[in-house]
Amino acid sequence: MVVEPKAWEHYSEEEVLEANKLKYGNEAIVQFYEDFEESKYSYREYDVVFSAVVDMLMPHLSGSLRAVDICGGAGKGAFTIKKCCPKAEITLVDLSEKMLGVARKRAAKEGFNDIKMVLSDAYTFLNGNKEYDIIIFSSAVHHFKDPVKLLETAARSLSPRGVIITIADPNRLKSTRRYKFFEFLATDKTNKKTIIKNLLKNGFKGKDKPDIFDVAEYQAYYGIDDLKLRKDLEESGLNALAHIRYPAGESYLTKIMPYFGLFWAFSFILTPNDKYKGKEWELKHRIKRSMPFAVDLM
To answer: Choosing a second label site near 105 at 20 to 30 A (CA), which of 117, 167, 197, 232?
Structure first.
């Protein structure tokens, strides 16, 4: 949903939700996901983080692992969990029926015929009565006005040993000149022209703020203050077993970005209890060792 700009703080959570509904019901957006073929070596952090968490949880579960991918879109999170744990009971939730259609096609292609697909927004679904061992937010937290409220709500749907995984959300490095310069070098000619136009229009002063912006992607553009978010979550009783910063995207970008200090994406592994106390070091260092590119453990 593209609208005339107003201060972000003046938008309500309901307006942001509506913007996401409109965006991910848009035929052009849906077609992009229909056509998109992810490079084999892109977004490798999913495999590393999810497998580490599954291996940590499994010895403590008496039955099948139950996982839900909230705002799951085309199914990246749900499918990765399924690959890590084929016997897991997995639910994929999204507010767009069209995006669920994309997920169904991809699931059929992958042979994942037992993933449950649910049409719902995050809050409506999480206010149900079911418990999950893993709740995933895959590139989803930045779509919400109040991530703390979202993750607190999710925590109430965790099993006694359950954890929340947030992954592939942008932090504030995304809006720095350093990142923008690197993005400019890496992008194609069409996007280079757009970036130059915005810079000229704003006189190279401060951040290159657009005249209009996509409310659903506002925090994708400016990024989330992940350090403040972690502190706020700790104050609400959600502890970070791991807080990872890393570069995301194509393989060549993830290899180069660390040399410029561009750990612009972040992931949390959160739990509302201390049942994994003492496991943090092992979990974080397994993730660091297994990543095919440099990461920053916070």
So the answer is: 167
